[in-house]
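wait is this the right file?? whatever heres the structure
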């Protein structure tokens, strides 16, 4: 049976990254949500949670998905949004290689068209092959793609590093991709 906090975390992720309107919370332009309002509206919508549970979810999340502001009155998702928010990412110089986990049915389209961000704001990349495998495994047998991020950067592509250490970019052209 799934841990109750895992279920709540998935719901919070849905709210803060994709659909704040389903419980009526408002995110500001940078994706911040008032913590008290989030808790009130979650409880009102049958997702029973208190501040201690929310603190535990934020602290124990294995992917470090959430951040509180300095005084702990607001919360936001660190990355992965499909809604238009500016999470105030700084441009960064990527390592020479990054990795992307996918499944076999997407490999040929990716090798033909590159990696597109789809419904999200950015393409997600990892410095770690194991993390890329975990991402790919969520949908089937993983295929790991090696991205020549250093070359992309030298060719003018911009990269960002989220607070939870996910590398982000707008698009990965096929010429920088190889299958591992």
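ok assuming it is, sequence goes like this
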């Amino acid at each position: 049976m799934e841990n109750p906090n895992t279920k709540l975390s998935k719901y919070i992720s849905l709210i803060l990254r994709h659909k704040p309107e389903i419980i009526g919370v408002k995110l500001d332009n940078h994706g911040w949500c008032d913590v008290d309002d989030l808790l009130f509206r979650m409880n009102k919508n049958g997702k029973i949670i208190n501040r201690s549970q929310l603190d535990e979810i934020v602290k124990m999340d294995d992917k470090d998905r959430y951040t509180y502001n300095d005084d702990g009155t607001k919360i936001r998702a660190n990355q992965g949004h499909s809604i238009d928010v500016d999470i105030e990412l700084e441009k960064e110089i990527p390592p020479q290689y990054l990795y992307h986990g996918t499944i076999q049915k997407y490999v040929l389209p990716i090798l033909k068209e590159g990696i597109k961000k789809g419904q999200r704001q950015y393409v997600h990349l990892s410095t770690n092959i194991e993390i890329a495998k975990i991402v790919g495994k969520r949908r089937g047998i993983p295929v790991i793609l090696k991205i020549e991020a250093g070359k992309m950067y030298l060719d003018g592509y911009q990269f960002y590093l989220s607070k939870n250490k996910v590398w982000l970019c707008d698009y990965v052209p096929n010429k920088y991709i190889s299958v591992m």
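The chain is about 35% helix and 20% strand. so i think its the right one actually
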